[in-house]
């Protein structure tokens, strides 16, 4: 009888683990999304024109994540309706020092004076940049809970418990039209996702991947915003 107990206990744990895994997979990690657009002018692109993506939040002392900027740039440039994207550092170097953090215009009111500076308008034309897209925002963990413990022994090891956390990816893109020297509008994306890690013997991570979804969603909307001119009423 004493020899049967470990086998029964192990089978019971496996059964519970399989049951929990099935429940977790059926629930999955969930993400909710909110996209808003505010248009201030007519947009569109001519042959050879493109966009450059810049970090705006350094004005607030909190630079938007470089990986998110790179992600949005790559997503805007590929797929159906992909736009020509000028690399951020290439643009900044070519316009030095006028788009460095301390000298970049804070709003479109400074664009006319910027264009009057020697070589600025010509260089922007050579680079083919029609729109500057200023990105601002962060991905933050806003909630979380649960606990998990792992142990190992002569007979094996495993993890037991349940952990979860919620990330909020909130970003705003301001679009400046360098041809009209005006603000074309804004696109905001707010993605909230909850990830789960249940564990009975083996942890099963169910990740929401909130930031990557925000990247794709924002990029798709920016493409539509720039190339989809509103029809006259």
Could you characterize the architecture of this molecule?
This protein has 233 residues and is α/β, with parallel strands linked by helices. It has a domain at 37-138 and 169-191 and 210-227: Rossmann fold. The protein has helices spanning 4-27, 66-77, 88-94, 111-116, 120-127, 210-227, and strands at 30-39, 50-55, 85-86, 129-153, 156-177, 182-203. A six-stranded mixed sheet has the order 1-6-5-4-2-3. The longest helix is centred in the first third of the chain and has 24 residues, at 4-27. The radius of gyration is 25 Å and the shape is elongated.
Topology:
Layout: H1 4-27, E1 30-39, E2 50-55, H2 66-77, E3 85-86, H3 88-94, H4 111-116, H5 120-127, E4 129-153, E5 156-177, E6 182-203, H6 210-227
Parallel strand pairs: 2-3, 2-4
Antiparallel strand pairs: 1-6, 4-5, 5-6
Helix pairs in contact: 2-6
Quick one: overall form?
elongated
* Proportion of residues in β-strands: 35-45%
- Structural class, by secondary structure, is alpha/beta
Point out poorly predicted stretches.
1-15
Q: Sheet with the most strands?
A: 6 strands, mixed
**Which CATH class of one domain applies here?**
Alpha Beta
Q: How many runs of DSSP E, i.e. beta strands?
A: 6
* Mean pLDDT across every amino acid position: 83
Cα distance spanning the termini: 85 Å
One letter per element, helices H and strands E, the order comes to HEEHEHHHEEEH
Search tags:
233 residues; alpha/beta; Rossmann fold; 6-stranded mixed β-sheet; 32% helix; 37% strand; elongated
Please outline what is shown here.
This protein has 233 residues and is of the alpha/beta class. The chain has six helices and six strands.
């Amino acid at each position: 009888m004493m020899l049967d107990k470990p086998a029964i206990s192990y089978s019971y744990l496996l059964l519970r683990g399989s049951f929990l895994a099935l429940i977790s997979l059926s629930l999955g990690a969930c993400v909710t999304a909110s996209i808003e657009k505010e248009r201030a002018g007519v947009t569109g692109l001519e042959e050879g024109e493109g966009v450059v993506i810049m970090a705006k939040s350094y004005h607030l002392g909190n630079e938007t994540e470089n990986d998110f900027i790179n992600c949005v740039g790559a997503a805007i440039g590929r797929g159906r309706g992909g736009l020509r994207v000028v690399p951020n550092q290439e643009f900044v170097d070519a316009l030095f020092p006028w788009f460095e953090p301390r000298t970049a215009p804070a709003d479109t009111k400074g664009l006319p004076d910027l264009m009057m500076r020697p070589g600025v308008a010509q260089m922007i034309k050579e680079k083919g940049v029609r729109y500057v897209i200023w990105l601002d925002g962060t991905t933050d963990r806003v909630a979380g809970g649960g606990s998990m413990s792992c142990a190992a022994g002569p007979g094996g090891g495993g993890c037991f418990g349940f952990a979860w956390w919620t990330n909020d990816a909130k970003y705003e893109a301001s679009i400046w039209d360098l041809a009209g020297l005006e603000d074309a509008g804004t696109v905001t994306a707010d993605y909230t996702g909850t990830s789960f890690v249940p564990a009975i013997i083996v942890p099963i991570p169910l990740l929401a991947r909130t930031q990557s979804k925000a990247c794709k969603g924002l990029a798709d909307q920016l493409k539509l915003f720039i190339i989809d001119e509103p029809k006259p009423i």
